[in-house]
Structure formats: C-alpha cells, structure tokens
Design goal:
There is one protein chain. With 405 residues, the chain is mainly α. The strands form 2 sheets. It has a two-stranded parallel ribbon with strand order 1-4.
Amino acid sequence: MEAQRQDGKLASSLSLGKYHISEEYGFLLPNPLEELPDHYKPWMEIAHRLPHLIESHQLQAHVYEMPLLDCRFLTSYREQRLAHLVLAAITMGFVWQEGEAQPQKVLPRTLAIPFVEVSRSLGLPPILVHSDLVLTNWTKRNPEGASSPSNLETIISFPGGESLQGFILVTVLVEKAAVPGIKALVLGVEAIRQHSQDTLLEALQQLRLSIQDITRALAQMHDYVDPEIFYLVIRIFLSGWKDNPVMPVGLVYEGVSTEPLKYSGGSAAQSSVLHAFDEFLGIQHCKESVDFLHRMRDYMPPSHKAFLEDLHSAPSLRDYILDSGPGGCLMAYNQCVEALGELRSYHINMVARYIISAASKARSRMLTRLSPHALEDRGTGGTAVLSFLKSVREKTMEAILCPGA
C-alpha cells in the first residue's frame, strides 16, 4: 500500500471542514436533529416506540400499515441523516422482530422505497450503519453539560434497556476521544509537507494521547453494558443480511428490486477513526483484512471515506521518519503504534467477553429458542471476529520501526 502513495498534492487541502468532520466532535454529527418535519410523523411515532413494539411483537403490523411518504420534504442534510437512522432502525426491528429463527425475507414497499431513496441521497447503504447507530444517534440532556454517560442519551433505541443505551453512548465517547487524534493527523501531514520535525513530534504525541484516551473511553463499556444482554438481545438488531447464514439469500426491498439485496450488519470497522490512524501511520494489513476494511468504507458517509482516501494519498509518514533517521519522531511514531496495538488488544478482550464467552454460556444453557447459527462466534459485520482482530493487531505491531531500519 505504501507504494501507491502519491506526491502529496492533496495534502494541502486536508482540512476537516471539507470532509464534514467537526473540530469539536470529529466524525460525530454535531447536535443531531431529534425530530423530522410533521410530514414524517408516522415514521417518528413508530421509531420512538421501537423497544415496546418489538418486544410486544407489534412492530411488523405497524409497518404494514405505514403510508408511503415522499422524501422530497427532507430538505437538509441533517434531516436526511435522521431519516436514515429512523428508517434503518425500523427496518432492523421489522426484520428481526421474531428473532434469528424467523427473520423477515421481504421489506414492505412503504418502508423499502423511502429508505433506499434516502440512502441514495446520502451515499449510504439501506441498512443500519455505524453512522446511524452512533454518529447520528446522540444528544445531550443539558446542552451546556459535559459529554459524559450521565448527560448523554440516544434519540432512537432498540430492546436492551440500559445496556443498549450504554453500548451506543460509550461508543459516542470513543468517537469523541478520537477528536484530538484526528486533528493530529492533519497537523502531522502538514508538518511532513513543511519538513517540520518539531510540529510532527507534537502531532505524534497528540495522537498517542488520543489513542490512549480512546482505550480508556472503551473501558467504560464494562460499566454500562451487560454481556448477556448484548449477546442475546442487542446483537441481533445489528446483524445484516450478507455473510449471515440465517439470511443466506439477502432481503427483498419491495418496490426497489425483485432480487434480494445483501448488506453487512453493523461493525466497529465502519467507524472511520482507526482507518484514519492506520492510513497516517502507514500500517498495512493482510489482503483478507484489507478487503473487509475497504468494503466497510462503503458503509461510511462518502465525505469520511474521501478523508481516508486523501490521507492515503498524502506524503508517507513512515518514509519521512525513515529518511530522518533515529530521533524523537521515530520514538514518538513507535509509541503511537504501540498505543494502537494496545487498543486493539483491549478490543479483542472485549469481544472475547461480549461475544465469545457469551456464546459459550448460551450454548451451555441450551437456549433452543435461538437458531444454531445464533451461537456462532461471528461479529455483526459477518466476520470471524477473533481471527480478524488478531490479524489486525499483529500487523499493527509489525509496523514498529527499528532505529537504523
């Protein structure tokens, strides 16, 4: 991948605003809308009652009664983002209302047509993605208060109660902790262009601290999310219809396509944060991992994907440090890579607790109401999750530079 880097022509325009990245909130959508125009009241009424409608097995009946609404009245980007979240959430609830043993095979046209239309406008797939569940799905109880779990709440929820809220909001805090790191990437690219070692050292130190803050933010998952509730309740509503054995042919979007369509479920790999860090640090993953990671970029807002592509085309940090020889920048670079490796190790431990161990406990209890496939050790994105994460961590640690290399 290093050989594909260009001469840095794009680096001069690597400013966050160009990519709809906030100076304060990073990839999070700043101050997301909580309501759509009155025309879309039928959607919002269902979306605000999702947990109850799913748990009482009434959601599918409500969806069948939904009117077919025109998307022309979604006039702003923020309205489109909220509409995508709302329609995605209703879709996941509709498909999985009866569990993995009885997924719905056809999405009714009154849901499918507007969902696909909004998705096309945003450049997103018609399924729940990270930019819905997390980036667009948060608000502050006290607008002047801190970004902390006690002052945050979701806009749209699923079954799972406090654990579901915790899962989403801790991930919001992870994205928030990444903001200084994202700014450091822009500073670092400019430092390389200007051949300023002092500025580059400052950027690398800022990036390392941000990665460590992300790990600390992620650790709060243990305080707010019960592994059993995550595995048995929450996980299913993040599952997609690609690489999922319980929906091998995909989902028919009625009124859109007569053939079933396949889309991956939600995945941490749909967050742009670690993609950006990998691009800046020049970390090269194995082909299978790269193929999956690059496919997940199609599940990101196009402006965020463009940021990653332009980072890739920027001058090579690794080449610059190798050309500069031993010194403070090389040490700081290695510290960033080590911090990223530690973050990925922590993520592996978390997945082991929330998916692997939880799956084992479910097997031991012979929970026959679940399909056999529900107990497989796979992520919601469809990957063999542990082997994927271990490969990614291994390739991260291989990026450490030896003085004089």
